[in-house]
Structures are given as C-alpha cells and as structure tokens.
Amino acid sequence: MFEYQAHDNLLADRVILVTGAGDGIGKAAALSFAHYGATVILLGRTTKKLEAVYDEIEQKGYPQPAIYPMNLDGASPKDYDDLAQRIDQEFGQLDGLLHNAGSLGTLTPISQYNIDTWHQVMQVNVNAAFMMTQALLPLLRKSSDASVIFTSSSVGRKGRAHWGAYAVSKFATEGLMQVLADEEEEISHIRFNSVNPGATRTAMRAQAYPAEDQAKLASPEDIMNVYLYLMGPESQPVNGQAFNAQ
Ligand code: NDP
User: Fold this and answer.
1) 202-240 burial by CB neighbour count: b if 16+ within 10 A, else e?
2) What are the residue boundaries of the structural domains of the chain, listed by start?
3) What is the Cα–Cα distance from 84 to 125, expressed in whole angstroms?
4) Cα–ligand 1 centroid distance for 219 (angstroms)
5) Whose CA is nearest to atom 29 of ligand 1?
C-alpha cells in the first residue's frame, strides 16, 4: 500500500470535484476528501447514489457537499461549460479534480470487439476527461495549488489480451495526463498525475472477475493514501507521474 499519513484538515478550504462519486473508489475518495476538510462536488450518473453519499457526508458533519448528476456517455462540450459555470457561481474556485468514473466495456479480443462498445468506453474514459479538464482549466488555473488525478489501470501500463477499449483508454488517459502536465508546468500551479488503484473490491472489479473471492481484495477505503497525498499540498512538486495505490 502507498505509504502516507494525512494530517487533520489536510484539504481544508479546498473545493474538489470527484467523478463517479456514487460508488466504489469514487465514493470512498469523496468521503475521504470531505473527512479531511474539502468541500466535494459529487458528479455521477445515478442521482440516488450521489444523494446517499451526500447524506453520509452531512451526517458525519463534514463540509456541505454538492451534487452534480451527469451522464458522461452523452455529455457535450456545452454540458462541460455549464458545469464550469455552475462551479464558478457556487464556489468561485476549484482546487482538485479526480477523474474516476470509468466504463469497463467487454472483455473481448480486438478481432471481435464491438465498435459501439469501443466508442462508448473511449467516450467515458478518455473523451469525457479531456472535455471536462479543458472546460475546468480556467478555474483550476486560478487556484494556487490545484491537483488533477487521472485514474489508470495495470492494463493501461502494459497491454493485456481481451481488455480491448478499456486498456487502450487507460493508455490514452496516461497520455492525456502527461501532455497536460508538460503544457501547464510553466504557466500554472496545476499538477497532473495518474493513479492505478490496483485490484479493489468494487462492482467493476466483480464484473471483470466474477469468480474471484472479493473478500481477499483491498477495499476502496484501504487505498485512499495516494489520493490524499496527491490532493494535498505535500505533493506540490509532483507532476506528470504515474502512481500505484497498492
Ligand atoms: P465502480 O463501477 O464501482 O464505479 C464506477 C463509477 O463510475 C460509478 O459511480 C459509476 O456510476 C460511474 N460511471 C460509470 N459510467 C459513467 C457515466 N457514463 N457517467 C457518469 N458516471 C459514470 O468502479 P470502480 O470504483 O472500481 O472504478 C473507479 C475507477 O477505478 C475506474 O476508472 C476504473 O477503471 C478504475 N480501476 C478500478 C480497479 C478496481 O479493481 N476496482 C482497478 C483499476 C482501475 P454508477 O454507479 O451510477 O454506475
């Protein structure tokens, strides 16, 4: 596990947007960021799940979060501009962005991979992250210490048979992260890094490995150290790097 001990109020006064915040790793990250003092914006496609996370954050007495239902599958550039405008109006700042929402597609050889599924996976995993980052850059540039985390995978660092669009989308995610890191280095205080969560007990993992014993896997809560480190001020000089949560 990535070694790091966050201190109380690590993320105080920061506004952080988490995509796919209703379930799995995104939910754990949203709760964890809020625990350490951040105001979190919960973005995802299932409003009920976002509401449950919202309630949990309120019950625990963390800073009041916000909900932003959005399906990344069909979202247009205008939707991302609206998102940026709403964040600017409501909070006037954005200090962190966790691109966590992801789509697995199917585990199929490339020779038989369905083209519509390919486009859908690339849309959610890569194009959405590109459009969202582009729309939110002006707000992130205003922050004195902004951090953007992209979510990768082991198959986004070494290709593996049958992982199709998902693997290719994660390679592209690493590329997007590196290009942004290089472009912004001289002109802003934004850092861009990627995290490979490693095998983690979530719905997506169960879909990919239905026969596996889930109890043996790390829980989303177990892998939060690297996310906290990258969102907090101690990672300030770190830019363009690929991390492993486990
Ligand atoms: P989950 O399936 O538990 O969560 C994925 C989240 O993304 C859900 O909240 C889901 O919303 C949201 N999401 C999916 N599609 C869309 C969409 N079109 N629009 C908006 N939100 C969407 O998966 P994990 O927590 O496991 O995955 C989180 C990230 O970690 C992903 O990027 C995944 O690729 C990556 N990862 C996970 C690993 C693991 O072992 N779990 C290993 C390596 C990488 P909803 O709940 O409404 O469906």
Assistant:
1) bebbeebeeeeeeeebbebeebbbbbbbbbbeebeeebb
2) 15-244
3) 19
4) 14
5) 100
Grouped pLDDT means (10 residues each) for the chain, 246 residues: 96 98 98 98 98 98 98 97 98 98 98 98 98 98 98 98 98 98 96 98 98 97 98 97 98
CA 204–ligand 1 middle distance (angstroms): 6
Residue with tokens 């239902």: 69
DSSP strands (E only) in the chain: 15-19, 39-44, 66-69, 96-99, 146-151, 190-196, 242-244
Domain covering 15-244 assigned CATH 3.40.640.10 in the classification: no
Active-site position among 62, 80, 166, 229: 166
Is 166 an annotated catalytic residue?
yes
- What DSSP letter does each residue of 47-100 carry, written as one string? HHHHHHHHHHHHHTTPPP-EEEE--TTT--HHHHHHHHHHHHHHTS---EEEE-
CB 227 within 8 A of CB 4: no
For residue 32, how far is its CA from the centre of ligand 1 (angstroms)?
A: 17
Q: Which atom of ligand 1 is least distant from the CA of 201?
A: 41
Predicted interface score ipTM higher than 0.90: yes
Token pair for 63: 């800073």
First and final CA of the chain: distance in angstroms?
Answer: 4
